């Protein structure tokens, strides 16, 4: 049962003006591979092993970094279970911030957002120091050029500033090339190192769990976590991905597994080649040159120089990835007006969050200039301390997010997720991450290589507490002084709908029709038919009200509940139940700022789960004497449902006073574009003959005979649409 009176086939969508500014990120730009490139590029594998792991051997005087990478990979895999489960229900570029807001409350969510912005900016800006210093060293070695590190950092800064305002898929192609070359050279180094073990024997000493029972285990673990920072970025790109419910999960699991194995094997291979009893001394003497010096003896200078170039491109790729992450966090906060609303603007042509991108660019420029003017060490003071500081912030955010996952699913019923994803795995991850956090704070001086009484040892961690408290205070202020902004916190792409839905008046007259709507953007023309995906975090009432008002009249409604008064009593509860279920396991879209709604269910691996498990019992209680007809309708549609994989358009509805304006057409077209890209068919049941022409225009064709309802009831018209029909719609 899909439609109410929508629009004639000739109804054209109202064109959006020529403004280059939008409030939505570009959709359907990124697949699984593209997001994996962003995630792994942020990790900068060659830099982590060639610099981070070697410096950890030197600073901690232990050989345990390979097993630390393996253990952290397991911890993050446990974290990812709940994290990606939540990503299936909440699609938001704010990721950590949004999940905390939905799981623990809006005020803690704003506090988490301040911590996230600080942590990711520290990671991104810190990498400029490493890029400039390492490239300057190479240029001096190869050509005798003496170039200041800050000049090279600003050169990278300029290129990244341009990339940040371009299409996100262009950025992913750049990262794909750089990352592929980086990983290939690492595999070559691993083969050489394992093929030439010290003393002719391959040892596994560095992989022994006993290495984690040492005085410096906190430094080991936080260094390992820092190497993975960026893996959580899949959810940041969810709004720009194809089929985010699956894409984000697959990309996150692939990235964690790939990076975990690559790090553990690469660090272990280096201990095998140098010798577990000599790796600490060698790392202390040669530091970041160790991996290249050893392999030069077997591969020749040219391939080692290639590796030196790739460690620079590795840093550049990480800079690009983190820049995009920061820009999207700022965009998410600006869109919801937690930060200045201008940050929530995107370029309509490229879909990039260009204001957030330029803001991050300006901030990075200021930090580079300050560090250069102060004469600080770009490798230690900017890169090493900056990235480990950012890594500490990400550990805090991951621990909070694991707890938030439990809170989020604990308040919701039928979400389609099992207990392992909702509670068990997040609880284990939260405990382990809190242990890592405690060890990190306890041994932070060892990590920084500073005396325990040095001011930086307590000032840096305290900074996160200050930012978190400031965010909490700001969230409390929004709650009391700006309730409309507060209500939209954590809604992401739904924030515009969240604010508009507050203006939807309740039904007040005896006819049950919503009075004339005066909210800007709903009744005032021209209407911009932008379509938003609604996540499980959106309030049920405003969405169910649209469906209830749209379907309260019509042949099917009158057959289901002949008495108009009973129908107006039953329908609000019935549609609230339907929307609650759809927000959990379906795909809900809104158009015209919540003047129209469409509900889709995937039916790829079996029939669509378009009804709650306890649907029959709830219908009996809710509908009373009319329940048999609801059951008859349900069984008739189930019997006619096709078995082939497809996506099911269960409902599309528009408020009665706003019909025939193309809103319903826009809602259907939006999802059909996505399905065409995925080569996925669609199916629906039209409830009246008037809309058949509209669906034919959109590529649907009748399939089989009409579905006849008992007791001389109306007929439903099943329709099927193969993929790639009218691809240009």
From TrEMBL:
Domain of life assignment: Bacteria
Compartments, as annotated in UniProt: Membrane
Alphabetical keyword list: Membrane, Transmembrane, Transmembrane helix
Pfam families: AA_permease, Acetyltransf_7
Transmembrane segments: 30-57, 63-86, 107-127, 147-166, 173-192, 212-231, 252-274, 309-331, 352-376, 382-411, 423-441, 456-477
Entries under InterPro entries matching the protein: AA-permease/SLC12A_dom, Acyl_CoA_acyltransferase, APC_superfamily, GNAT_dom
Main location: membrane
SUPFAM superfamilies from the UniProt entry: Acyl-CoA N-acyltransferases (Nat)
Membrane topology: Multi-pass membrane protein
Record-annotated N-acetyltransferase domain positions: 583-724
Keyword RNA-binding: no
Protein name (record): Amino acid permease-associated region
Organism: Kibdelosporangium persicum
């Amino acid at each position: 049962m899909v439609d109410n009176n929508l629009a004639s086939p000739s109804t054209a969508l109202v064109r959006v003006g020529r403004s280059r500014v939008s409030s939505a990120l570009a959709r359907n730009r990124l697949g699984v591979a593209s997001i994996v490139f962003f995630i792994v590029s942020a990790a900068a594998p060659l830099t982590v092993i060639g610099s981070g792991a070697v410096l950890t051997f030197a600073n901690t005087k232990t050989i345990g970094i390979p097993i630390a990478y393996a253990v952290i990979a397991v911890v993050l895999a446990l974290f990812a279970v709940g994290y990606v489960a939540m990503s299936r229900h909440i699609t938001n570029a704010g990721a950590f911030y949004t999940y905390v807001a939905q799981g623990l409350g809006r005020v803690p969510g704003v506090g988490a957002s301040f911590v996230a912005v600080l942590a990711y900016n520290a990671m991104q800006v810190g990498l400029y120091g490493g890029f400039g210093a390492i490239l300057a060293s190479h240029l001096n070695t190869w050509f005798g050029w003496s170039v200041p590190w800050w000049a090279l950092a600003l050169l990278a800064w300029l290129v990244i500033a341009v990339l940040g305002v371009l299409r996100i898929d262009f950025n992913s192609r750049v990262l794909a090339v750089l990352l592929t070359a980086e990983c290939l050279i690492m595999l070559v180094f691993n083969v050489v190192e394992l093929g030439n073990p010290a003393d002719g024997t391959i040892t596994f000493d560095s992989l022994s769990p006993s290495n984690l029972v040492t005085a410096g285990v906190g430094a080991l673990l936080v260094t390992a976590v820092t190497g993975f920072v960026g893996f959580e970025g899949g959810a940041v790109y969810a709004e720009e991905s194809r089929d985010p419910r699956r894409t984000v999960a697959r990309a996150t699991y692939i990235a964690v597994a790939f990076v975990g194995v690559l790090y553990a094997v690469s660090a272990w291979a280096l201990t095998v080649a140098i010798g577990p009893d000599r790796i600490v001394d060698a790392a202390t003497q040669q530091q970041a040159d160790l991996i290249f010096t050893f392999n030069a003896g077997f591969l020749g200078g040219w391939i080692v120089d290639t590796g030196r170039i790739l460690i620079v491109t590795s840093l550049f790729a990480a800079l690009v990835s983190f820049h995009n992450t920061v820009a999207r966090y700022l965009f998410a906060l600006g869109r919801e007006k937690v930060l200045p609303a201008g940050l929530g603007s995107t370029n309509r042509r490229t879909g990039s969050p260009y204001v957030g991108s330029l803001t991050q660019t300006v901030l990075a420029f200021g930090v580079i200039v300050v560090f250069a003017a102060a004469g600080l060490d770009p490798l230690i003071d900017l890169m090493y301390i900056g990235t480990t500081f950012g890594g500490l912030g990400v550990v805090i955010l991951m621990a909070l997010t694991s707890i938030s996952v439990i809170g989020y699913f604990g308040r919701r019923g039928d979400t389609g997720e099992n207990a392992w994803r909702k509670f068990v795995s997040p609880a284990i991850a939260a405990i382990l991450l809190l242990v890592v956090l405690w060890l990190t704070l306890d041994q932070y001086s060892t990590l920084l290589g500073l005396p325990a009484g040095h001011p930086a040892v307590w000032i840096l961690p305290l900074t996160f507490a200050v930012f978190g408290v400031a965010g909490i205070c700001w969230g409390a202020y929004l709650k009391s002084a700006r309730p409309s902004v507060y209500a939209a916190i954590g809604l992401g792409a739904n924030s515009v709908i969240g604010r508009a839905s507050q203006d939807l008046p309740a039904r007040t007259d005896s006819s049950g029709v919503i009075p004339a709507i005066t909210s800007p953007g709903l009744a005032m023309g021209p209407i911009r038919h932008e379509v938003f995906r609604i996540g499980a975090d959106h309030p049920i009432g405003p969405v169910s009200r649209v469906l209830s008002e749209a379907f309260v009249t019509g042949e099917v409604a009158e057959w289901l509940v002949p008495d108009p008064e009973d129908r107006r009593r039953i329908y609000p509860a019935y549609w609230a139940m339907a929307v609650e279920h759809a927000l959990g396991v379906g795909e809900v879209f809104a158009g015209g700022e919540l003047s129209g709604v469409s509900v889709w269910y995937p039916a790829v691996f079996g029939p669509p789960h378009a009804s709650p498990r306890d649907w029959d019992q709830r219908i009996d209680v809710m509908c009373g004497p009319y329940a048999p007809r609801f059951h008859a309708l349900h069984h008739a549609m189930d019997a006619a449902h096709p078995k082939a994989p497809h996506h099911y358009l269960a409902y599309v509805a528009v408020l009665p006073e706003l019909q025939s304006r193309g809103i319903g057409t826009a809602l259907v077209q939006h999802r059909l574009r996505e399905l065409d890209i995925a080569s996925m068919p669609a199916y629906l049941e039209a409830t009246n003959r008037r809309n058949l022409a509209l669906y034919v225009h959109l590529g649907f064709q009748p399939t089989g005979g009409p579905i006849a309802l008992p007791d001389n009831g109306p007929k439903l018209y099943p329709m099927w649409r193969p993929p790639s029909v009218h691809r240009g719609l």
